[in-house]
Amino acid sequence: MTIMPNSVEARDMAYQMHPMVNLRKYEKTGGLVIESGDGIYVTDNTGKRYIEGLAGLWSVALGFGEKRLAEVAKAQMEKLPYYHSFSYKTHGPSIDLAEMLVKIAPVPMSKVHFTSSGSEANDLACKMVWYRSNALGNKDKKKIIGRIKGYHGVTIASGSITGLPRNHESFDLPLDRMVHTSCPSYVHFGLEGESEADFTKRMLKDLEDLILKEGPETIAAFWGEPVMGAGGVLMPSDGYWAGVQAILKKYDILLVADEVICGFGRTGKMFACETLGIEPDVLVVSKQISSSYMPLSAIIMNDHFYQPIADESDRIGVFGHGFTASGHPVATAVGLENLKIIQERDLVGNVARLEEKFLGGLAELAKHPLAHSSRGVGLLGALEIKPWADANAGDAAAAIAAACQDEGLIIRNIGEAICFCPPLIITAEQIDDMFGAVARALDTVAAAHA
Fold first, then answer.
1. How far is Cα 394 from Cα 62, in angstroms, rounded to an integer?
2. Same structural domain for residues 240 and 302?
3. HEC profile of 338-393
4. Would the pTM count as exceeding 0.90?
5. For residue 396, is pLDDT > 80?
């Protein structure tokens, strides 16, 4: 790509520092400048149109250009553009959205606390776990169990619960209160000749052995995504979640389910906890809560979790935490309208109806000589790529992702996989278009690497 002086690309390279990139590389190459979006499509500043196969960052449930969300945002801006929820004050949109979240939660819940991102929500949930342990007099019960390959954000606490080296290296993370157990992806970590049932038993033994090693009296909570997203769309093995919950109950350890990616229809149910039979104490949500039209996240908690925290705030005199934008009226108004649209248009049902076609399309792609296997649930999936013997890890998947972009499809390569998470509004015909672009990209890369 030739970058002209004073172009938008040149100004971006000169002034903006980007997340999740090689910064020196970005200074030389720049990035793709997206200017507009419509439905499942986005268009760059040269006029090229792409299918957004990852829904932005796993998040634009309604697709791009939903006018009802723009209208609600404008109306709320004009009525009350900002107010806070500090010091015994509140406003209508946050009340209405909190009520809806409690009512649609997959298990009985009590209260909702709003934040602005998944990282922020997981970070606060961690603080609340520690606050609650202190409230109960369990001063040593502070450790958090995350999982290898799990992703929960990039703040100091949420980044420490995350189990990905790229989010730890050179940041002095993880904190020593955070420990990690095995990743339950049978495809990646099953031993030769090991059945899936035996793999699940080994994963559960790893978890219980870690608890006993650290001391159950020191462990406060277990964090887990129902399906691991940013780790590469990693599916839990059969029986895994039932076994995990039995172990946590045995040792009085809280369960925090991170549904930042999975929530609000992605798996064919409103929440992945319903799909996989998970009954959490705390549910963390973001992304599809507002289709990412506004920064918004929420911590939904049951009464067992909430009551000791409320008691401690009464003893101290205050719950000493808050963000300026917590429960922002424009964000919560947009979130409320977004969830209404998901319900009115039966987009959760759309996912359930399209799941067979989506997973079947991935399975067909897995027959390509460059592919290894496929996996997924609902409209969340991955195509595992065979690594190249003469290249670095992940190079094959990166080459295919780049070829997909050339074909007019934006997806994401993670490790040896290319991952898919299209907007919930996608149609059967558009799934064919998306996977057609992948098939062409696979052939292009195969020919170039022959």
1. 31
2. yes
3. HHHHHHHCCHHHHHHHHHHHHHHHHHHHCCCCCEEEEEEECCEEEEEECCCCCCCC
4. yes
5. yes
